[in-house]
Amino acid sequence: MHSYEEKQQLQALGKGDKKAFDALFRNYFPKLKNFLDGFLHNENEAEDLAQDIFVKLWQNHSLFIHIENLNAYLYTAAKNMLYNYIERSQKTKFLSIASVIELPTIDKLEELLAAKDLESLIDCAVEKMPPQRKTIFNLSRKEGLSNKKIALHLHISKRTVETHISAALSDIRKALRLFLFFF
Predict the structure, then answer these.
(1) Both ends of the chain: CA-CA distance in Å?
(2) Element of type H or E holding 158
(3) pLDDT digits (tens, 9 = 90+) for 71-84
(4) How confident is the model at residue 103 (pLDDT cuts 50, 70, 90)?
(5) Is the pTM of this model over 0.70?
(6) Residue range 88-101, pLDDT digits in tens
(7) Phi, psi (rounded to 5 degrees) for 51
(8) At residue 147, does pLDDT exceed 50?
(9) Which CA distances in Å does 113 have to 31, 35, 51, 150, 159?
(10) Residue where one domain finishes, among candidates 88, 103, 118
(11) Minimal CA–CA distance to 47: which of 73, 29, 60, 59?
C-alpha cells in the first residue's frame, strides 16, 4: 500500500470510517497472521492474536490520525501480543518439561524478533537498490555465486560486480546504522 493512500486511510480510520478499516485489515491481517504463526507454529492461535490486534485497532481508531507508520505500529503491537501470549501461557498452564523446551523464553523471543527485524531491514534496503545492484547482490549473497560467475552470467566485468557488491554493502550498512541506533 502506498504511504499517501495509507495516510488517507489512517485519517479516515481515525474518524471511524469502516471502509478504511476494512481496507487496512485486508492489507495487513494476512501479514500479521503469518508473522505471528512464524513464532507460534499454531495457525489458529496466530489468527486469534492477529484478530485481537485489529479489534484493539478499531476500539482505539481515533488515535490513528497521529500514526505515521502503520506497518511499524502493527508489528510492534504483534511483538507485544506475542510477549503477553507467552507470558500468559507460562503462568496459566501446567507445562511439561518437553513443552517448556518448545516455548521460546522472552529473551529468545526478543532475539528472534530482532533477527526478523534485521532481516526485514536488509530486504528493504536491497529492494531500494538500483536494479542491477540488487540483482548482483542477490546472486552473490542469496544464491552464493562467485563474482566471476556473476560477471559471466550478466556479461559484465568482474570489477563491475565487485563495485556493485561494495555499493550494496554500503547501502545496507547505512540502513543498519539506523537500526542499531534504535536497538
Answers:
(1) 26
(2) helix 158-182
(3) 778 888 888 888 88
(4) low
(5) no
(6) 776 555 444 444 45
(7) -65, -40
(8) yes
(9) 15, 10, 20, 33, 37
(10) 103
(11) 29
Radius of gyration, alpha carbons of the chain: 21
Q: Rounded CA gap, 122 and 49, in Å?
A: 27
**End residue of a domain, out of 82, 103, 124:** 103
Q: Do 4 and 92 belong together in one domain?
A: yes
Rounded CA-CA distance 143/166 in Å is 17
What residue numbers bound the domain in which 129 lies?
104-183
pLDDT of residue 155: 94
**CA dist., res. 37 & res. 13, Å (int):** 27
Crossing angle between the packed helical segments 70-92 and 18-40, to the nearest 10 degrees = 50
CATH code for position 120: 1.10.10.10
Q: How confident is the model at residue 104 (pLDDT cuts 50, 70, 90)?
A: low
* DSSP H or E stretch at residue 169: helix 158-182
Length of the chain: 183
- Could you write out the DSSP letters of every residue in 29-46? HHHHHHHHHHHH--HHHH
